[in-house]
Amino acid sequence: MAHVLEHPEAPLPVSPARRTLALTRPVPLVPLSIETRIVRPGKKVQWAEARLQADGAEVARATMLRIRAAEIPWPARTGGGDTGCPFPGPESSHAVRPPWTNDYPPAYHSTATEHRVVRGAWGELGPTTDWIRLRLPLAAGETPSPLVRVAAVADFGNGISSALPFESHRFINPDLTITLHRLPAADWVCLDAATFPERHGVGVAESVLYDERGRIGHAAQTLLLETW
Fold first, then answer.
1. Rounded to two decimals, what is the model's pTM?
2. Same domain, residue pair 133 and 60
3. Among candidate residues 182, 207, 137, 168, the one with its CA nearest the CA of residue 18
4. How many CA atoms lie within 13 A of 143 on its CB side?
5. Cβ(48)–Cβ(38) under 8 Å?
6. Using the 8-state DSSP alphabet, how is residue 135 labeled?
7. Is 3 helix (H, G, I), strand (E, B) or coil?
8. What is the pLDDT of residues 134-156, one digit of tens each?
9. Hey, is 147 helix, strand or coil?
10. DSSP string of 66-110?
11. Is residue 117 part of a domain?
12. What is the mean predicted confidence (pLDDT) over 200-216?
């Protein structure tokens, strides 16, 4: 859905500033169709929408806020720009296997991504900082764009920063919002993730997103918390 939302024509170059994904139904393993439209055209601010369908029923909907991209005058050191990532890079840590790898057949979340944890640890409760990159193209024969790389890994935030035990609780995210002030410059994307649960069964997972040059944005997932 991120891929198709990049391509609607715009009168000027645009930057994908925010993508919000609503998972309205479970997505089955069947052929899927997708529809896109421009909800609000504009030269400086544009909204695009994509609807994913299975057997005629909508299973997910995404909106993309696209803002015109242009070089503007910039005062010396008033914030912004690349300041470097505050965490060690992906080459500073060994690859780790997701703790759920042995529980599933080969799939996207278990084998199609590579992970390098530099703070915290999978299998332990609490915040975790994880460098992630795609091992395979999202679509055969197509090189993933920077936006696709971010969208493909940002959904890991609630899984890598679990605040409740996997053995007794689950925390499903029916949405994912990604806000970007810059696209990643290389394959690796870092998630500095933390989960905040509440006793009434609602939580939020937040991930600050980095590449090796510095911060690129933020991701948030609303969580449905329940026991097994």
1. 0.91
2. no
3. 182
4. 4
5. yes
6. S
7. helix
8. 998 888 888 999 999 999 999 99
9. helix
10. EEE-------TTSS-S----SS--GGGS--B--TTGGGSSS-HHH
11. yes
12. 96
